[in-house]
Amino acid sequence: MKAKQISVFLENKWGRLAEATKILGDNDINIRALSVADTADYGVLRMIINRPDKAYEVLKNSGFTVTETNVLGIEIPDEPGGLARVLEELKKESLNVEYVYCFLEKGHESAILILRVDNTDKAIKILQSAGIRLIEAKELYLL
Amino acid sequence: MHIFEDYFIPEIIDPDTLKTLPPGETGELVFTTITKEAIPVIRYRTRDVSCLKFEPCSCGRTHVRMKRVSGRTDDMLIIRGVNVFPSQIESVLMEIEGTEPHYQMVVERKGNLDILEVQVEVSEKLFSDEVKKLEDLERKIKTEIESVLSVSVNVKLVEPKTIE
User: Fold this and answer.
1) Is the pLDDT of residue A121 over 80?
2) Among all residues of chain B, which has the CA nearest to that of A38?
3) Which of A126, B74, B83, B133 yields a CA-CA distance of 20 to 30 A from A134?
């Protein structure tokens, strides 16, 4: 259920994001989804990648600070209230969302939600019992 | 700047050999007091790098002049009147778990104030993909350094191996 997300520390400098993504491209690694959290001095690039282990390796070897984090991939209907329903379930059990981002599946009716919570195992149980579909890591990498 | 030679004897020494250097050479400025009775000092080491000029001055005074201080023989910085040693910052960083003591101090002058920025490299151990935790880390380093130095600093997290 848990998927590996690759996160990279990026200094707020000209061309840094371009360099990181170029390294992935040169190594034939595809980014499935990404989000960037930015502050005044630095940003955190978070990505779902088809080959997370390889991405970790090449970025690290190129001198980037990289880390792996467990996140959840959740399928939600691409319609009003889709995201709200998932969050409502987590709220009921007082789970805290650290961050979240979304992408749309090619040729499907559903959207994919990438979710990071303070207690991943508990979130899995809650969502499963609420009948919300969690996407297997392998499936997520290959979407 | 003129030095009152009837009260002080200025000399320029080599900070390593402690030998007096010939006139016009650059080195560490030391002072010997002639008239102080309570606390006389002999070749008091200022740690300031300067040189002495014995040529007559256009202002008409005949006392020796020292050139503007160009540096220090130790690595001490003076930030808003507070003596700051890099080793103090190093010891703070060592105590914060996981921090490699790779850092750089950048002093800038904004208006009339010295601004000290401490850039700290983010190692893999320190890195969290949650901005909240990175901000906590920044704040922690800032607070600890300030409590040791008693002078306010800005802390900036930078990528590893970016500090030369």
Assistant:
1) yes
2) B131
3) B133
